[in-house]
C-alpha cells in the first residue's frame, strides 16, 4: 500500500496533511468549474 502512495506524492508533506487537503479543494473547484462550463449551455436551453 505504501508504494503507490509514494509514487503519487513526490514531495514530502508535513504530518498534518494540509497540502493534500488544499490540492483536493483546488481539484474539486477546477472540476466543478469545468463541469459548469460544459453543462451551462445545455441548462440554458431549458430555462
TrEMBL record:
- Its domain of life reads Bacteria
Q: Which residues cross the membrane?
A: 22-43
Keywords of the record, alphabetical order, are: Membrane, Transmembrane, Transmembrane helix
This protein's name: Uncharacterized protein
Q: Which organism's genome codes for this protein?
A: Pseudaminobacter salicylatoxidans
